[in-house]
Specification:
CATH architecture: Orthogonal Bundle
Family: Belongs to the cytochrome P450 family.
Number of helices: 16
Order of helices and strands: HHEEHEHHHEHHHHHHHHEEEEHHEEEE
Number of strands: 12
Largest sheet: 5 strands, mixed
Helix content: 40-55%
Shape: globular
Structural class: alpha+beta
CATH class: Mainly Alpha
Radius of gyration: 21 Å
CATH topology: Cytochrome p450
Number of domains: 1
Distance between the termini: 55 Å
Strand content: 5-15%
Protein name: Cytochrome P450
InterPro entries: Cyt_P450 (IPR001128), Cyt_P450_B (IPR002397), Cyt_P450_sf (IPR036396)
Strand order of the largest sheet: 1-2-8-5-3
Organism: Streptomyces ochraceiscleroticus
Length: 429
C-alpha cells in the first residue's frame, strides 16, 4: 500500500471498532464530512470517502474504481487454495467488473425478478405467522435469531429449493462468508481462521454438488436456474464452482442484511411510537418503514473499490492500487443532500424512489433488493400485527460481531404484553 506524507487523517475520535460506531454508524461521519471528507484510515489501510456526491461519482465510474478489492485480495489459506483458488474468490458477484459481472448478474437475477418475488410474498407471510405462533404468548424474546433471521433463512431455503438437511450449513455459511470477506482488512486469528475456512470449503463442495445435480433438471429454484443457464454457444453459462460462490453470497446477503434491517426498524420504532402507531393503522406504510430504516442505517455501512489509476476525490489524490471504502451510511445522512438526515421519518420525501445508497447504486445495485424490500415490509407488518406492543428492551447490552465493514447484530431483546398478542387472521398460514 502506498504511503503518503501529509495524507488527510480522520477526526481524532473516529473509531470503526467503538461502541458508538456499532450503535450508530452514521454518527461517526458527521464531523469527518466537514473536516476530512476523504481520509486515510491507518488501522484498516484504506481511504474512506464520506460525502454523498463523491460516493455517487465513484459508484458510477467502474473503469476508474474497480470492484476487484472485494474479492481479489482475500487471503485463502494454502491448504484450501486448490479447492477455493484466489481467482475464484475474485469472481464473487461484488468483486467483478464488466463484462464478466454483467454476464453473471444476468443469469443470477432470474431468481429475483418481480414476478418471482411477488409469487413468494404469501409464503413469506405464512412463514412469519408460523414462526410467531411459537412464542407470541411469552411476552419477551430474543428476536434476532428467533424471528428476523429465522424468517429470512426459511425464505432463502425456499428460493434455493434446499431441504432441511442443508439448513444448518446455510445458517453458518452466512456468518462465515462475511468473516471471509472482512479478512482482507481484518485478519482472523487462530483457531478461528482454521475453523471458519474448514466450514467454508465444506459448504462450497456441497453447493457444487447440488449445482451439478440440477444441471439437467427443470426446476424453478435459483440453483436450478443458474445451473441450467446456457451461453450463446450453448455451453453452461456458469461453472459449478462459480454457482456455489454466488450461492454463498446469497446465503449471506439474502438473510443477514434483511434481518439486520428488520431489527434496526424495531429499534427505531421503539423510539418513535407515533410512527409505529401510524404504520399499525395503515399497513401500506410498512414499506416506507423499511425504506427509511435502511436509509438511516444501511445493513452494510460500506462498499469498497480499488483505484485502477491515480485518481482524485475531493482534491485528494488516490494512488493506483489503493482501496477506498465508500461510507454508504454517511452518504445516506449527508445534510448537503438530505433534509434533517439523522431524524427517522417514514414520511420523508424520496423514499418511494429509493433515494439512498443502502443497496448501493449503478451496476452493483444489490441483486436481492426486491426480495429484501418485500420480505422486510412483510416481516415487520406481521410482527406488529401479532405483537402490537412490540418494543426493544431499553439500554440492553450491545451484541455485535464487531466487523468495521459489516457490523452484524447478533441479538435483540424485545418485550410485548402477552395479553395483547393476537392470533393470526383466519386465512391459512
Amino acid at each position: 500500500m502506498t504511503q503518503l506524507a501529509g495524507r488527510p487523517a480522520p477526526p481524532s475520535e473516529f473509531d470503526l471498532f467503538s461502541d458508538a460506531y456499532l450503535r450508530d454508524p452514521a454518527s461517526a461521519f458527521v464531523r469527518a464530512r466537514k473536516e476530512a471528507p476523504v481520509f486515510w484510515n491507518e488501522a484498516l489501510g484504506t481511504w474512506v470517502v464520506t460525502r454523498r456526491a463523491d460516493i455517487d461519482a465513484v459508484l458510477m465510474d467502474w473503469e476508474t474504481w474497480s470492484c476487484e478489492a472485494n474479492g481479489g485480495r482475500l487471503p485463502v489459506p494454502d491448504e484450501y487454495a486448490d479447492v477455493v483458488p484466489p481467482e475464484l474468490m475474485a469472481e464473487i458477484m461484488i468483486g467483478m467488473d464488466p463484462p464478466k459481472h454483467t454476464a453473471a448478474r444476468k443469469v443470477a437475477q432470474r431468481g429475483f425478478l418481480k414476478p418471482v418475488i411477488e409469487a413468494l410474498a404469501p409464503e413469506i407471510e405464512a412463514r412469519a405467522h408460523r414462526i410467531l405462533d411459537g412464542f407470541a404468548h411469552l411476552g419477551a424474546a430474543e428476536l434476532m435469531e428467533t424471528y428476523c433471521l429465522e424468517l429470512t433463512t426459511q425464505t432463502l431455503m425456499a428460493l434455493l429449493g434446499l431441504s432441511a438437511e442443508d439448513e444448518p450449513m446455510m445458517r453458518q455459511l452466512r456468518d462465515d462468508h462475511f468473516r471471509v470477506l472482512a479478512s482482507g482488512r481484518e485478519p482472523m486469528p487462530e483457531p478461528e481462521r482454521s475453523e471458519v475456512w474448514a466450514r467454508y470449503v465444506a459448504a462450497q463442495l456441497r453447493l457444487r454438488q447440488l449445482a451439478q445435480e440440477r444441471r439437467d433438471g427443470d426446476g424453478g429454484d435459483i440453483i436450478s436456474l443458474m445451473a441450467m443457464a446456457k451461453n450463446r454457444e450453448g455451453n453452461d453459462a456458469l461453472s459449478v464452482e462459480r454457482i456455489a460462490m454466488h450461492l454463498t453470497e446469497f446465503a449471506a446477503a439474502g438473510t443477514d442484511t434483511t434481518a439486520q434491517a428488520m431489527a434496526n426498524a424495531i429499534l427505531f420504532l421503539s423510539d418513535a411510537p407515533e410512527q409505529r402507531a401510524e404504520a399499525q393503522a395503515d399497513p401500506t406504510l410498512w414499506a416506507r418503514v423499511f425504506e427509511e430504516t435502511v436509509r438511516r442505517r444501511p445493513s452494510a455501512p460500506f462498499a469498497s473499490r480499488v483505484a485502477t489509476h491515480d485518481a482524485e476525490i475531493a482534491g485528494v489524490t488516490i494512488p493506483e492500487g489503493d482501496i477506498v471504502w465508500l461510507a454508504l451510511a454517511s452518504a445516506n445522512t449527508d445534510s448537503a443532500a438530505v433534509v434533517d438526515p439523522m431524524r427517522f421519518d417514514i414520511h420523508r420525501d424520496g423514499l418511494d424512489d429509493h433515494d439512498h445508497y443502502a443497496f448501493t447504486k449503478g451496476r452493483h445495485t444489490c441483486l436481492g433488493a426486491p426480495l429484501g424490500r418485500t420480505q422486510g415490509a412483510i416481516g415487520l407488518r406481521v410482527a406488529y400485527e401479532r405483537l402490537p406492543g412490540l418494543r426493544a428492551v431499553p439500554d440492553q447490552k450491545q451484541d455485535f460481531l464487531p466487523l468495521a465493514m459489516l457490523p452484524i447484530r447478533r441479538s435483540l431483546q424485545v418485550t410485548w404484553t402477552p395479553s395483547d398478542a393476537k392470533a393470526p387472521e383466519s386465512k391459512e398460514h
